[in-house]
Design a protein that fits this description.
heterodimer; A: 118 residues; seven-stranded mixed beta sheet; B: 112 residues; mainly beta; 11 strands
Chain lengths: 118, 112
């Protein structure tokens, strides 16, 4: 199957700083990438959907100014958590699908990034 | 609004038992349904993907079925092993959107 990587795998930062998380599709071109958040012992919640070259679509309740998403190329999407606070501490997971859309492709998931805000 | 529920929420069984995990969804308009495994503190491992036109998929000791009309999927694990202990998540890809909705998960513990 296709491979999706995330960097970093974990990060610890001070409250008020910004953190950037990268999501890369290593062996396919990802026209659409997704960002999820998972709190302890809970399921994954979709935060936003990003298409290459266009603005991300955010789910209800997700602050677009706080969670900046950039999908500048067909293999890279970034999530920047701006002015992070302890309540932003979570496990962030990205996924990607290739050309053809969801009716032809499955989502491939990255290994996740654990963010801890002190 | 699509809702995905998994039953049971937690399960503890002795090694060797055959298991059935359940996933139900409220809207049958889906592209596909996927089962994942998640170990504590780790990412997702894809187990089986069932397209909306399919009824079941098999991989080793795992078998997943899909009944779109009733909004149900089951994951069957044969001859369970301690290494199967993990959280199992199902997710549906909603037709007409680019949204993947995850179920609530089943935490499985297989005792040696």
């Amino acid at each position: 199957g296709a491979v999706v990587s995330q960097h970093p795998s974990w990060v610890i930062c001070k409250s008020g700083t910004s953190v950037k998380i990268e999501c890369r599709s290593l062996d396919f071109q990802a026209t659409t990438m997704f960002w999820y958040r998972q709190f302890p012992k809970q399921s994954l919640m979709l935060m936003a959907t990003s298409n290459e070259g266009s603005k991300a679509t955010y789910e209800q309740g997700v602050e677009k100014d706080k969670f900046l998403i950039n999908h500048a190329s067909l293999t890279l999407s970034t999530l920047t958590v701006t002015s992070a606070h302890p309540e932003d501490s979570s496990f962030y997971i990205c996924s990607a699908i290739g050309a053809g859309g969801p009716s032809y492709n499955e989502q491939f998931f990255g290994p996740g990034t654990r963010l801890t805000v002190l | 609004k699509q809702e995905v529920t998994q039953i049971p929420a937690a399960l503890s069984v002795p090694e060797g038992e055959n298991l059935v995990l359940n996933c139900s969804f409220t809207d049958s308009a889906i592209y596909n349904l996927q089962w994942f495994r998640q170990d504590p503190g780790k990412g997702l491992t894809s187990l089986l993907l069932i397209q909306s036109s399919q009824r079941e998929q098999t991989s080793g000791r795992l078998n997943a079925s899909l009944d779109k009309s009733s909004g149900r999927s089951t994951l069957y694990i044969a001859a369970s092993q301690p290494g199967d202990s993990a959280t199992y998540l199902c997710a549906v890809f909603i037709s007409g959107t680019y949204k993947y909705i995850f179920g609530t998960g089943t935490r499985l513990k297989v005792l040696a």
